[in-house]
Every structure is written in C-alpha cells, then in structure tokens.
C-alpha cells in the first residue's frame, strides 16, 4: 500500500504557501539524510522550505530535496520521506507531525537515496577551455 505521508506533506506545504505562511519541515537525522551539519540539533533538523528560502525544491513520494544557503554557502539537502517528522506553518504552529520508526529504510528507498547521491557526486563532463 502506498503511504499517504508525501501527499499530506505536499498538502500542508501548499496550504502554507496559499495562506502566506512559512512552511517549516522537521526531520530525523538518520543514515541517508544529507543535512547541513552545523544546523543539526539532537539528531533532528528544522528547515524553512518556503520558495524564498529554497531553490529546486522537490517533494517526491520517496524524498524531499532542495538547495538552500547556510552561512553563505549553497548546500544541497536530501531527506528521505520516511524521516520527515513534521511539516507546519512557522507563524501559528499548525500542521502535521509523524512518528518516525527507528528501523532501517526500506530497500527501495535506500537504493533510491544511494542512486541520487552517487549521481550528484559524479565528476562533471565539462572541460576547461583556455
């Protein structure tokens, strides 16, 4: 059976944007998550995922990824959907929160995460022309 979590996350995200509120995402930091290390607190991270704070935001059924600036450095963030613990409006705290099991990722999700990370770490096909 397909999880309803990604649909709920997208729904709260859209509700926040249409209501002129700031969507915040909370996620557990477990293997497969690529957060900015300087912003991790107690194995959890809270991120502003508004269009003003992110670029190339993707809320897929298996993961959430985007680029954001932290301390002036553009970083790529990757969070498997199973590690998302909540999404809410910063202004009033309304949203949804989920229980995160401490079990391993499902094999398909882990394979997808590894594939995404490997694809991004591949050397560029571009060459320097002088």
List keywords for this structure.
alpha+beta, 4-stranded antiparallel beta sheet, 130 residues, globular, 3-stranded antiparallel beta sheet, SH3 type barrels
Q: Mind summarizing the main beta sheet?
A: 4 strands, antiparallel
Order of helices and strands: HEEEEEEEH
The helicity comes to: 10-25%
**What is the name of the CATH architecture?**
Roll
- Indicate the radius of gyration in whole angstroms: 16 Å
Separation of the first and last Cα atoms: 55 Å
- The level 1 CATH classification is Mainly Beta
As residue ranges, the low-confidence spans are none
How many helical stretches? 2
Query: How is the largest sheet built, in terms of strand order?
Result: 2-1-6-7
Topology (SSEs and partners):
Blueprint: H1 5-18, E1 23-28, E2 44-48, E3 55-59, E4 63-70, E5 73-80, E6 84-89, E7 95-97, H2 107-120
Antiparallel strand pairs: 1-2, 1-6, 3-4, 4-5, 6-7
């Amino acid at each position: 059976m397909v999880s309803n979590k990604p649909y709920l996350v997208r729904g709260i995200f859209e509700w926040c944007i249409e209501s002129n509120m700031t969507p915040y995402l909370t996620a557990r930091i477990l293997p497969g998550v690529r957060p900015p290390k300087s912003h991790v607190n107690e194995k959890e991270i809270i991120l502003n995922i508004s269009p003003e704070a992110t670029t190339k935001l993707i809320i897929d059924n298996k993961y959430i990824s985007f680029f954001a600036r932290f301390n002036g450095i553009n970083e790529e963030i990757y969070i498997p959907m199973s590690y998302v613990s909540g999404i809410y409006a910063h202004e009033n705290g309304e949203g949804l929160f989920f229980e995160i099991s401490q079990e391993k990722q499902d094999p398909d999700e882990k394979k997808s995460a590894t594939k995404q990370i490997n694809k991004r770490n591949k050397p560029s096909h571009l060459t320097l022309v002088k």
